[in-house]
Amino acid sequence: ADGELIRWRKLVLATGSRPIVPPIAGVDLPGVYTVQKDVGYLNRLLEAVAQAQDVVVIGGGLIGLELADELRKRGRRVTVVEILRRCLELVYDDDLTERAEQELARLGINVRTGARVTAIEGDGKVKAVRLDTGEQLRADLVVLSVGAQPNVALAESAGLCLVDGGIWVDRYLRTSNPDVFAAGDCAAKTSYLTGMPAATRLASTATAEARVAGANLFQLRREFPGVVGVYSTKIGDLAMGLAGLGERAASAVGLSYVVGTAEAPDRHPASMPGAKLLKVKLVFTRHSGQLIGGQAYGGDSVGELINLIAVMVQRRMTAEDIATFQMGTHPALTASPVTYQLSNAAEMALVVLQG
Question: Model-level pTM greater than 0.90?
């Protein structure tokens, strides 16, 4: 921007994404914020939080709900407005979205699902949010959390090929100019499991792509196989995770599947201090028994368990493989080997697969 010229042999574009700002009347009022990757901006948001009592979060996805929970911890009255019929519907299946909304209710977070914001109202500063039902929600502060879009302005001005709103890349993370690579939210994604376009925007995906792009700059050594989609979050005391395809996603792409579920304490015996009930659901293709996704919720062990499920998806393990895999267990650290959720969920799926 200041006219300095930097020469390069290879270039990596990692320009990330920008928050989506929906065309709502009053969205430009003082007191309306987005979730931006900008320290100065976020500090101003924190200052606004300190002066607010009633906060409306528009968007019931992962970031919106985590933000709502943190605002609740600061003593704010929080309402979440989600246009879909359930919060987290774009990520998790109905059984887990229902459990998440139960936890939000327990925490005292007000949730309006199936509701569309028609206007943000105020006179010089935000005062309320109006819904399509006619309901008016009091608001000293509004935070928009309705998704992100790839930041491709620089790539577009450079004449690089764009696809599905992102920068086109091959499996080596090269753009349409073979000396220019792209990684992270700015790069277009395809699904590891279906080969179809994927809208996944995750830091974990971005770092995996960066490891591929960095290794390939001067010699092609690694390929990025596509996005698995590994999500985890925690709201209140409820940890949730999903890797690969859930039931809804599998149905949407026309896959015939079977499901196995298992539930047990994540320590053994159940009286072990800190033990929490942990439920696992695994999704397998009906024709081959290959694992295509898994979901879990319960205590904090969910975070690493969902990463293990992601490895199983990437290694194309079958229900038989998972039912017989050898795990390490300890009373203070894991579920009992007898009730180990991954193995037992796979066994339940095998009952269906084998008729």
Answer: yes
